[in-house]
Write a structure and sequence with these properties.
The strands form 2 sheets. Strands 1, 2, 3, 6, 7 and 8 form a 6-stranded parallel beta sheet that branches. The protein has a two-stranded parallel ribbon with strand order 4-5. 39% of the residues lie in helices and 15% in strands. Strand 1, helix 1 and strand 2 form a beta-alpha-beta unit. It is built from 7 helices and 8 strands; from the N terminus they run E-H-E-H-H-E-H-E-H-E-E-H-E-H-E.
Length: 193
């Protein structure tokens, strides 16, 4: 996929840096707890928000922004790019932008057509990832999600967690384990942008 989709998959950073990102929120049951974990370690992250969740939970979204984290657009309705006509997909992204107001965009599931991509690249920095924790998978344990971080994280890695109900148990346990391990390895944490 990295060779097919011209986007940011990893940050070419000369320092030993990690970029934590969170997809699918804001979720009032999970996002504040994720923010508490990040606060505990003094870390800022980038949250790719679903516009409809921002519409439904503006207070939770405002909490993310007020705590100094970056935000990005993750479409209005978490659309699959391969299954959605380009004009409809782009309209959905632009609707989400009214609530989110960011120049960063991440396609849900990492699925985007070249036509969608060409149009969106004119307005957004397209951000993918090189480490996905799969914390949304109920068959995985927090320890397995953490082991994915340990195995694949390297300098400049963009790591995806999810601040959604589906991933709550995994993210709330695996995130602090991952942060503490990354700190022990000498990584610093940065936001995208």
């Amino acid at each position: 996929m990295k060779w097919l989709v011209p986007a940011v998959w990893r940050i070419d950073d000369k320092t030993k840096s990690i970029y934590l990102t969170f997809d699918d929120g804001p979720c009032p049951d999970v996002t504040p707890k994720v923010l508490d974990i990040l606060d505990k370690y003094g870390i800022k992250a980038t949250f790719f928000c679903v516009g409809d969740n921002v519409r439904k939970y503006p207070e939770t979204f405002r909490l993310v922004v007020d705590k100094g984290h970056r935000t990005g657009n993750h479409t209005m309705h978490h659309l699959k790019g391969f299954c959605t006509p380009a004009a409809e997909y782009i309209d959905d992204v632009e609707e989400a932008d009214k609530y989110i107001g960011s120049n960063l965009f991440r396609p849900p599931y990492g699925r985007i057509t070249m036509k969608q991509l060409r149009f969106l690249r004119q307005r957004y920095k397209i951000v993918m990832w090189d480490v996905i924790t799969r914390d949304y998978n109920p068959q995985l344990t927090p320890e397995k999600c953490f082991s994915i971080v340990k195995r694949f994280a390297r300098s400049g890695s963009i790591i995806i967690f999810h601040d959604s109900k589906k991933s709550a148990d995994n993210v709330l346990s695996a995130l602090p384990l991952s942060i503490e391990w990354l700190i022990r390895q000498g990584y610093t944490f940065k936001t995208i942008g």
